[in-house]
Specification:
Layout (H helix, E strand, L loop, with lengths): L10 E5 H7 L9 H7 L8 H34 L6 H5 L3 E7 L5 H13 L7 E5 L7 H6 L14 H12 L5 E7 L4 E10 L4 E5 L20 E6 L2 H16 L11 H5 L2 H24 L8 E5 L5 E7 L2
Parallel strand pairs: 2-6, 2-7, 3-6, 7-8
Antiparallel strand pairs: 1-9, 4-5, 8-9
Helix pairs in contact: 1-3, 3-5, 8-10
C-alpha cells in the first residue's frame, strides 16, 4: 500500500509545555504591578505567562543577538584582518526585531514586555520600541487618496519613509527620527517626532511589517534580524476587538478630544454594531488578505487560544 509523502515544514512545532521547558530557568525580573502597567487594554497576560512564554523567548533572542555579534566580528576579521577585532562591533547598528499580527491580537503588550525584559538582561542593552502607526499617511492625505476606509492596509502607510527609517537606524546613524501617531486624535501629530539614538536593539511593531518588497528591491523585512508573528483564530481576534472597543468606549472615547467621541455617546448596541461592521469590512479583510499571509515569513509564531494565552509555538529551523 502506497504511503503519502511526509509533509515538510521549515518550522519546529512546540506545545506551550515544550517551549517553557526549552528555556533556561531564570528569576522573573518583573513584578505584578510592573506587568499591569505594560499590558494593553483588556489583555490578560499574567506572571505565569511571562515565565513560561516570554522568558524563553527572551533567552532565544539573546542567543540570536550573541550569534549575530559573533558573526559580525568573524566577517570583520575576514575582511579587514585582526588589527582591530572590536571595529565591527563599533560600526554595527542594532539588532532589529519585528513584531507582526492583527489588530487586537496583543502585539503591543508583547512588544512592551520584550523591551522591558531585554533591558533587564545581560549587559543591560538599550532597547527602542517603535510602532509603524507613525508612518500611516495623515488623515487628510488618506481622505484625499480615498483610503480612509482602508487605514491599516499596506497602501495606507508611507512605506518608503518607514523602510528608510529602519535602514538608517540599522546603519548605526547617531540619531534617526520618526513621526508620532496619536490614538486619541486618530492622526499623525504635526511637528512631533520620536528620536531614536543608536539603541542596541530596535523592536518594530506593526500590522504589515513582514510584507515583502517588490521583486528586485530592498524591503523593510531585509533589515530584520528576528521576526515574531502573533497568531490566533480570526473569530477569537474579533471577540477581543469588540471587547476592547467596549472598554475604550467607556474610557478613552469619552475624552472630548477623541476622534471616536461619537461612539461614547451612542447607545451601546448601536456602537457595537458599528464596531462589528468595521471588523467585517476593514480589519478582517486586511487580516485575511495582507497580514496572515506574512505569518510564514516569521522566525517564530506565537499561537494564542481563545483566552488570549499562548498555546503553541512554531520556531523556524536554524
Amino acid at each position: 500500500m502506497a504511503t503519502s509523502p511526509r509533509r515538510t515544514t521549515p518550522y519546529i512545532e512546540l506545545t506551550r509545555a515544550q517551549w517553557s521547558a526549552a528555556g533556561e530557568r531564570a528569576p522573573l525580573p518583573l513584578t505584578a504591578a510592573e506587568l499591569t502597567a505594560l499590558r494593553g487594554l483588556g489583555d490578560v497576560t499574567d506572571l505565569t505567562e511571562v515565565r513560561e512564554v516570554h522568558l524563553p523567548l527572551v533567552r532565544l533572542l539573546q542567543l540570536h543577538i550573541e550569534a549575530a555579534a559573533g558573526l559580525r566580528s568573524a566577517v570583520g576579521a575576514f575582511l579587514h584582518g585582526d588589527a582591530d577585532p572590536g571595529a565591527a562591533e563599533r560600526r554595527a547598528g542594532p539588532f532589529v526585531i519585528a513584531v507582526a499580527g492583527s489588530v487586537a491580537v496583543g502585539k503591543s503588550t508583547i512588544s512592551r514586555l520584550l523591551r522591558a525584559l531585554l533591558e533587564r538582561g545581560p549587559g543591560r542593552p538599550s532597547v527602542a520600541l517603535v510602532t509603524t502607526d507613525g508612518f500611516l499617511l495623515p488623515t487628510d492625505e488618506l481622505r484625499r487618496r480615498g483610503l480612509l476606509a482602508r487605514k491599516g492596509f499596506p497602501e495606507s502607510y508611507d512605506r518608503r519613509a518607514l523602510t528608510r527609517f529602519v535602514a538608517e537606524v540599522k546603519s548605526g546613524r547617531p540619531e534617526v527620527s520618526a513621526p508620532v501617531y496619536s490614538h486619541l486624535t486618530y492622526d499623525i501629530v504635526p511637528g512631533e517626532r520620536l528620536v531614536v539614538r543608536r539603541p542596541d536593539i530596535l523592536i518594530l511593531e506593526g500590522l504589515n511589517v513582514l510584507q515583502s518588497a517588490p521583486p528586485g528591491r530592498v524591503g523593510l523585512a531585509d533589515h530584520f534580524d528576528f521576526s515574531l508573528y502573533v497568531d490566533a483564530r480570526p473569530a477569537d481576534i474579533r471577540a477581543w476587538y469588540l471587547d476592547r472597543f467596549l472598554r475604550l468606549r467607556a474610557t478613552a472615547f469619552r475624552d472630548p478630544r477623541s476622534y471616536f467621541r461619537k461612539y461614547a455617546e451612542l447607545p451601546e448596541e448601536t456602537a457595537l454594531a458599528i464596531a462589528g461592521t468595521t471588523w467585517r469590512t476593514v480589519n478582517e479583510p486586511n487580516l485575511v488578505a495582507n497580514i496572515a499571509p506574512t505569518r510564514a515569513r516569521a522566525t517564530l509564531v506565537l499561537r494564542k487560544g481563545p483566552d488570549h494565552a499562548v498555546r503553541a509555538v512554531r520556531l523556524r529551523h536554524p
